[in-house]
């Protein structure tokens, strides 16, 4: 530890890493959500009242994906924001709406499925489309209220440095850390525990009932696994490392330095890239149980393997997959 001076952090890593992540997520995310919306339209009645939450989840993803080209330009230019202070705040606000809106709607989907499976008689006729729309509006309002204070923090610092902070400038970092901790608790921890509790109890109930459809058990187990992976890869690292990075900045401001501060910065940038993946992965989460979607996905993967085979063996010839499809 050094109490006299702190070395400057090298920001080169984010300029190399984040643009590649943003352009990849932008392309894959738009394709995945477009495919998801098309499938949602075809299977609206089959998904039931959950369709309303699925639609809002996809809209939250698309809202954020449309801001990624601007962020890509920002980091390619070496953290030089050229689109103005207002649009900087709007861009960061869209990220927060996507992040916490996604968590909120995933929680709603989990609660609805829990009630439909564990308490089907109690909720019969109560889980209406009207109530789903009302709950969706409440989620948007709650997420907006939680994210609105972020817009009042300095993002560009008068544009003197050219930055568009994802949190805030050094001057207000102590206050932002307190805000971020409260935000993490209400916007992430509570919904995560609710989602985990719903699927955990749901699986316990399904496993106790010998008469329960085995396919339903398998789908619930798969969805729980997918959600755990999504939270562990996208959401948990981001929230832990965002707060650790803010704390590191507070200590640096006080001229208190630790060896782990640079490592935390690098890990935080990686977590920022990982949290963007939720916009591309969400369609797999909410449509995984649809047999038609699964068949389409298998067909796409089969075509991709065929194209890879033909490309790799182009010089020696390639046996079409269709001739050996019966072996699979």
Summary tags:
about 325 residues, mainly alpha, Rhopdopsin 7-helix transmembrane proteins, globular
Short description:
Helix content is 72%, strand content 0%. The protein has 328 residues and is mainly α.
Provide structural commentary.
The protein is mainly α and 328 residues long. The chain has one domain: Up-down Bundle (Rhopdopsin 7-helix transmembrane proteins), CATH 1.20.1070. It is 72% helix and 0% strand. The chain has eleven helices and no strands. Helix 5 (85-118) packs parallel to helix 10 (278-286). The longest helix is centred in the last third of the chain and has 40 residues, at 214-253. The model is unreliable at 315-328 (pLDDT under 50).
Blueprint of the fold:
Elements: H1 12-42, H2 44-47, H3 50-65, H4 68-76, H5 85-118, H6 129-147, H7 173-208, H8 214-253, H9 260-276, H10 278-286, H11 291-312
Helix pairs in contact: 1-3, 1-4, 1-9, 1-10, 3-5, 3-6, 3-10, 5-6, 5-7, 5-10, 7-8, 8-9, 8-10
Query: What count of domains describes the coordinates?
Result: 1
Q: Which radius of gyration do the C-alpha atoms yield?
A: 23 Å
What top-tier CATH class fits best? Mainly Alpha
* CA(first)-CA(last) distance: 59 Å
Overall mean pLDDT stands at: 82
Quick one: overall form? globular
Quaternary status:
single chain
Poorly predicted segments:
315-328
Q: How does the major sheet shape up? A: none
Topology as a string of helices (H) and strands (E): HHHHHHHHHHH
Number of helices, counting only DSSP H or I runs of 4 residues or more:
11
Count all strands and give the number.
0
């Amino acid at each position: 530890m050094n109490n006299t001076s702190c070395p400057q952090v090298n920001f080169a890593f984010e300029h190399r890493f984040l643009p590649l992540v943003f352009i990849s997520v932008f392309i894959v995310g738009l394709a995945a959500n477009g495919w998801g919306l098309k499938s949602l339209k075809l299977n609206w009645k089959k998904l039931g009242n959950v369709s309303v939450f699925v639609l809002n989840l996809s809209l939250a993803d698309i809202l954020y994906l449309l801001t990624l080209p601007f962020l890509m330009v920002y980091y390619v230019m070496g953290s030089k924001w050229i689109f103005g202070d207002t649009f900087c705040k709007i861009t960061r606000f869209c990220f927060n709406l996507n992040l916490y809106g996604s968590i909120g709607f995933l929680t709603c989907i989990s609660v609805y499925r829990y009630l439909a499976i564990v308490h089907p008689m109690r909720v019969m006729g109560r889980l209406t489309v009207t109530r789903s729309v009302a709950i969706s509006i409440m989620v948007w309002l709650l997420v907006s209220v939680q994210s609105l204070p972020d817009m009042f923090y300095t993002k560009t610092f008068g544009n003197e440095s050219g930055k568009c902070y994802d949190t805030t400038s050094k001057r207000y970092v102590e206050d932002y850390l307190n805000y971020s901790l409260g935000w993490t608790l209400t916007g992430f921890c509570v919904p995560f525990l609710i989602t985990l509790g719903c699927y955990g109890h749901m699986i316990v109930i399904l496993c106790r009932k010998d008469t329960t459809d085995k396919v339903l058990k398998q789908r619930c187990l798969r969805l729980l696994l997918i959600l755990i992976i999504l939270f562990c890869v996208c959401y948990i690292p981001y929230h832990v490392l965002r707060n650790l990075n803010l704390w590191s900045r507070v200590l640096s401001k006080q001229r208190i330095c630790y060896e782990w501060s640079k490592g935390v910065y690098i890990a935080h940038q990686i977590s920022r890239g990982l949290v963007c993946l939720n916009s591309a992965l969400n369609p797999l989460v909410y449509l995984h149980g649809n047999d038609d979607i699964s068949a389409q996905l298998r067909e796409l993967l089969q075509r991709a393997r065929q194209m890879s085979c033909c490309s790799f063996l182009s010089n020696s010839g390639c046996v079409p997959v269709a001739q050996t499809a019966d072996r699979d």
